[in-house]
Design brief:
The complex is a heterodimer of chains A (about 140) and B (about 425). Chain A is an alpha+beta fold and about 140 residues long. Chain A is built from 5 helices and 6 strands. Chain A has 2 domains: about 70 residues, VC0802-like (2-Layer Sandwich), CATH 3.30.2130; about 70 residues, ACT domain (Alpha-Beta Plaits), CATH 3.30.70. Chain A is about 35% helix and about 35% strand. Chain A has a 6-stranded antiparallel sheet, sandwiched between helices. Chain A is globular and about 45 Å long. In chain B, helix 6 links the parallel strand 3 and strand 4. The chains are: A alpha+beta (about 140), B alpha/beta (about 425). Chains A and B meet through strand 1 and strand 3 of A and helix 11 and strand 18 of B.
């Protein structure tokens, strides 16, 4: 039940993020969540968007972009919520490659996005422990 | 015997004795012509104590003084002109990127000779008057466009004088007008191949059968990659503005070196340090003597290209001497932390490791130590959204370079098509150390 994230390769120079965000904005796409990982030479922009195909079409012209499956887990917006999720994954020996979080309109609710080495295993474990993962359709109902 | 295609069969397949006879006759006249008409070279000959009558054949060429790019700069613009300007009809010029612009003068006879050389190259690549030749070398002062354009006319091909750049238009004409032979720099050919694939074309979708690529160094690996992406056979062509332009030598279907048009150009290989002439088969600097030029008749011009000559018989039936692809330039070689590095070595590693041949080398000096960075465009499918994957690729490439060169550059993977190409000719090396000198 993974969700679709788009990742784009950006040069680490002034204006490249702005240019990418403009292209997404001009296509009328809403950014639901965003994270940038950076090195000295380049950055990787990771986004969850309201329309994947439109975003690819808008960025593809001069940006390398790829689809990645990531897990989004619902958590309550309170101390210790992330700890509970990570503890489950840690016990199962699952490696987290990167992580970021976003909140939604629903009160008291936050979501953590994870890329892990074994997505199926991670989802099964989370489910067994009563944790709720989202799919692309769920996102459409909770976010604009 | 299989039918062979020659533009001028008699001279292209003449016996070695006939070629030597022609060269011996021409050189005697040419040296006298230069001595009488070019004061700059007459002075050099006088200083060396050589008289025109000392030159009785090509074996005596080694007695003549060399010309270098420095001479050309010193004599700029008219000092090496061989005839009255009223007899000249054209100039061509080098880009002058190294600050040493060369202006060469042509009489109509020189142009005809040059275009015939290009025509030989086109026919050797399978060209006939039924072909459509797309020339996307630059037109203008650069010899690439005018040379191949003239050669294509001589063969009677339908010529598309595209000049360089505007890749979308190049592709549109290529597809709509069924171009069969493509002439451009190898880096631009690779770029066209990538652009075609991006537009969803397969190699078999175009009508191209051959490409004639030159004006910059390229490797055997790059040849195979271009041949695959365009679905063609890729032929090398060599030349320089100082002697005429492209077509001084060209490849036949054997693809094992370029036949030098020996009825017009005499080639020697010398030791770049001592200037001594080396025996056939030795690796050294290529030196050209024009045998019948009028406007800009250079004798013993040092090209700075490092290569090997071979007179072994060729399966194509041509008897003219073959030169290898230049293996580097005596002035292209970089010395980085004491190690000799040629850009062609970097390119070979990149292609072997599955990367694009689009790269840029940046050398600088920080705290009295050379820095060595190579920027490499990756293929879109090589992109991973995990930084660790990209860094692992960079580390692997560094290792592959280190085992080839003995020195490991810092690798920076960059987005496809992000390295700037000027006039279709990629800037391969930026050496900032010179700024500090």
């Amino acid at each position: 039940m993974a969700i679709t994230q788009l990742s784009a390769f950006l040069e680490n120079t002034p204006g490249t993020l702005y240019k990418a965000v403009c292209a997404i904005s001009d296509a009328g796409v809403n950014l639901r969540a965003l994270s940038v990982a950076d090195t000295r030479d380049f950055g990787i922009l990771r986004v969850i968007v309201s329309d994947v195909d439109k975003t690819i079409a808008a960025l593809n012209e001069d940006t390398v972009i790829t689809r990645t499956s990531v897990i989004a887990v619902r958590m309550s917006d309170k101390a210790g919520a992330l700890k509970e999720i990570l503890s489950v994954l840690q016990k199962a020996g699952i490696n987290i490659e990167y992580v970021y979080a976003f909140t939604a309109n629903a009160a008291n609710s936050a979501y953590v996005v994870l890329r892990v080495n074994d997505i199926e295993e991670a989802e099964a474990i989370l489910k067994e422990n009563g944790l709720d993962t989202l799919n692309d359709e769920d996102l459409n109902t909770i976010l604009p | 015997m299989k039918m062979k295609n020659y533009y001028q069969k008699e001279i292209e397949t003449a016996s070695r004795e006939e070629i030597l006879k022609i060269q011996n006759e021409k050189i005697v006249k040419q040296v006298k012509y230069v001595y009488d008409n070019v004061p700059y070279y007459r002075n050099l000959m006088d200083q060396k104590g050589v008289k025109p009558e000392d030159i009785k054949g090509v074996d005596d060429i080694r007695k003549l003084p060399f010309l270098t790019k420095d001479d050309l700069r010193e004599a700029y613009p008219y000092g090496l002109l061989g005839t009255d300007l009223k007899n000249c009809v054209r100039i061509q010029s080098t880009s002058g990127t190294t600050g040493k612009r060369v202006v060469a003068f042509y009489t109509q006879k020189d142009i005809d000779m040059w275009e015939e050389c290009c025509a030989r190259a086109i026919v050797a690549a399978g060209g006939t008057n039924e072909d459509v030749v797309q020339v996307c070398y630059g037109y203008g002062l650069f010899t690439g466009g005018p040379g191949l354009n003239g050669g294509s006319h001589k063969v009677g091909c339908l010529t598309l004088p595209m000049s360089s750049g505007n890749t979308d238009r190049q592709i549109q004409f290529m597809m709509d007008l069924n171009a069969t032979i493509l002439c451009c720099t190898p880096s631009y050919a690779a770029f066209i191949g990538e652009s075609l694939a991006e537009k969803g074309y397969k190699p078999e979708d175009n009508k191209l059968k051959a490409g004639i690529f030159g004006a910059e160094p390229w490797t055997e690996e790059m040849r195979r990659s271009i041949e695959k992406s365009l679905g063609i056979k890729a032929y090398d062509i060599y030349g320089l503005t100082e002697t005429s332009g492209p077509g001084v030598s060209f490849e036949c279907e054997e693809q094992t070196g370029m036949h030098i048009n020996e009825d017009h150009f005499y080639a020697e290989i010398i030791d770049p340090k001592t200037g001594e002439v080396l025996p056939e088969g030795s690796k050294g600097e290529l030196v050209f003597t024009s045998l019948d030029k009028e406007g800009f008749p250079l004798l013993r011009y040092r090209t700075k290209d490092i290569c090997i000559l071979s007179r072994k018989p060729c399966s194509c039936g041509r008897t003219h001497v073959k030169m290898t692809k230049p293996m580097g330039r005596s002035d292209d070689m970089m010395i980085i932390r004491g190690v000799n590095v040629f850009p062609s070595q970097i390119e070979a590693v990149l292609l072997k490791e599955g990367y694009t041949p689009n790269y840029q080398i940046v050398v600088d000096r920080v705290n009295n130590t050379d820095t060595f960075d190579v920027y490499v465009e990756f293929h879109p499918e090589q992109f991973s959204d995990r930084i660790a994957d990209i860094q692992a690729r960079e580390k692997d490439l560094n290792g592959a370079m280190r085992s080839m060169l003995g020195i490991g550059p810092k690798i920076h993977l960059v987005a496809p098509k992000s390295i700037v190409r000027s006039e279709g000719k990629a800037v391969r090396v930026i050496d900032k150390r010179k700024l500090h000198d």
